[in-house]
Amino acid sequence: MELSRELAQMDAEALRNLTVTLLAQLTERDAELSAKDAQLANRDQELKAKQLKIDQLTHEMAILKRWHFDRRSEQMDPMQRSLLDESIDADIEAISLELEALKEKPASPPKEQPRRVALPAVFPRREVRHEPENTQCSCGLERIGEDVSEKLDYTPGIFEVERHIRGKWVCRRCERLIQAPVPPHVIDKGIPTAGLLAQVLIAKYLDHAPLYRQEAIFGRAGLALPRSTLAQWVGACGVRLQPLVDAMKVLLLARPVLHADETPVPMLKPGLGRTHRAYLWSYSSREYDELKTVIYDFTEGRGGVHARDFLGSWSGKLVCDDYSGYKALFDRGVIEAGCMARARRKLHDLYANHRSEIAEEGLEVLRRPVRVEREARELKLDAAGRQQLRQQRAKPIAEALR
Hints:
Order of helices and strands: HHHEEEEHHHEEEHEHEHHH
Shape: extended
Number of helices: 11
Strand order of the largest sheet: 7-6-5-8-9
Strand content: 15-25%
């Protein structure tokens, strides 16, 4: 009633101003509600995408665990089965870490950690001390103790325990306790140092030493590390190193010239009873590039879609062989730079198998631009110097070869 009387007493101008104000407030309220609706829609999409990824990883982990624990039907010899177990354990650890990062867990009391067996006392100890940067206090700081944690390091053939000692400092008058923070490690609360993890990875992927062999090697050094533990370390390192690979890929795809190649590798695949041909694709910067980078991309097939997925929208000059899988890249603007070593190989086959005189002449012509490149390296020419030398010496050779 009071509102009705107030409105009745207002003149036309006041009513108009009130109406404009109310409409403006309603418009502002509608805009806020629309923005909140958009935020909720975006959040729903993010949650759906995250849940889809979680479901996918959970499905992959279920398959891996079934392969790992139900092996009676697999027709594999013990050696193949051992290699397969290593790969499955590493994949399960990597997927577990990815799931932990995706899932939003509610706050819960910390789980009681299992007691770790003490590292053998016969191993030599190397102390790494961590003290606060500033131990000054107007009242006077007093060292009251220290925390000691041990990490297992490895020099080929020799184990060494790295003791991290973090001193505790307290000011009894201020009732203030300070201590150096725990140094970061690749695997939190784990025993391996970065050096030991690097040894495991290099031995597995560079020296081609399977984990069951490394288990025996470490056993001879005094501590047998189970291959399941080594596999978990490998999987965790794969996840921790992925940001570095992503950063390298961004830098690599900013280069104007790239080299690409693919190499078949045998892959154990449960259910087949034999190895499956997979492929390891390599993408690298050119010889004279300041950025010396090679990235390997493992795929289960050789289809050109894998190269397209890796390169994305990159455009530039691609040095590669004549494999048809690259053709789709050239159709969308990538410039093909044929590999002269592959071209030479065909002539070499003709000469080696049939002693073709034309092939022999072609081989001699192809040696000449190689000599030009060798001369450019010996003279340590810059890009402009190499281009000038190639125009003067290599271009006539290419024209004669054509």
